[in-house]
């Protein structure tokens, strides 16, 4: 928890008056959002685009002004968490189910800052975390069969015994590909499949990765 707080708060050093920022989702982004709230209450003037309903609720409760992405057009920076980060700053995201909105917001962002604790650093994506893939409910079993042709095992995400639904009303398949050697190829191929809405690989999107360590230090890695 300490590492997540350190990295989340450190990322807010990049925020300046007048910026439009993206707010990520999850337990690490949480600390960045809390800190932004404090900064806003101390006079910082920013507007923000949230990546999930959960983040929108938190940001509003912190007094952060939210705007729609269409109104923002582009964002100065986005602070978001990740489930895995490889040495080239490729990511797996979507552990919290927010990958679709996160990827849209990340793609509209000049600078994507990723905040993680040290446990998220891996040599290859897929080493410790299954790849979340958002799929349409209509054809999810068929889409699952198509995805499994890429030699992965997958399971439909459930919550309290029920199929989990994203903020967009879709389902998530958590897919075990083993170690992913070529993240760009996999993400491109997966997104060609009808029924796949988006997958959790964020290839070549992050510019800065801030790592929090349990011993209390923080490392800023830049491309
Ligand atoms: O869908 C959720 C997001 O991609 C999160 O940013 C990711 O799961 C990391 O979350 P946490 O910081 O809670 O580990």
TrEMBL record:
Pfam assignment, any one: Rib_5-P_isom_A
Family annotation (SUPFAM superfamilies):
D-ribose-5-phosphate isomerase (RpiA), lid domain, NagB/RpiA/CoA transferase-like
Q: Does the keyword Isomerase apply?
A: yes
In which residues is substrate bound?
25-28, 80-83, 93-96, 120
Q: Which UniProt keywords apply?
A: Isomerase
Does Cytoplasm count among this protein's keywords? no
Q: In which pathway does it act?
A: Carbohydrate degradation; pentose phosphate pathway; D-ribose 5-phosphate from D-ribulose 5-phosphate (non-oxidative stage): step 1/1
What Gene3D superfamilies does the entry give? 3.30.70.260, 3.40.50.1360
Q: Superkingdom of this entry's organism?
A: Bacteria
Annotated GO biological process: D-ribose metabolic process; pentose-phosphate shunt, non-oxidative branch
EC number per UniProt: 5.3.1.6
Question: Could you state a single Gene Ontology molecular function term?
Answer: ribose-5-phosphate isomerase activity
Gene Ontology terms: cellular component = cytosol
Reaction(s) catalysed (UniProt annotation): aldehydo-D-ribose 5-phosphate = D-ribulose 5-phosphate
Q: Where is the active site?
A: 102
InterPro entries per UniProt = NagB/RpiA_transferase-like, Ribose5P_isomerase_typA_subgr, Ribose5P_isomerase_type_A
Member of which family? Belongs to the ribose 5-phosphate isomerase family.
Q: Give the protein's biological function.
A: Catalyzes the reversible conversion of ribose-5-phosphate to ribulose 5-phosphate.
Q: How does it assemble?
A: Homodimer.
Q: What is this protein called?
A: Ribose-5-phosphate isomerase A
Q: Which organism is it from?
A: Halanaerobium praevalens (strain ATCC 33744 / DSM 2228 / GSL)
Its gene? rpiA
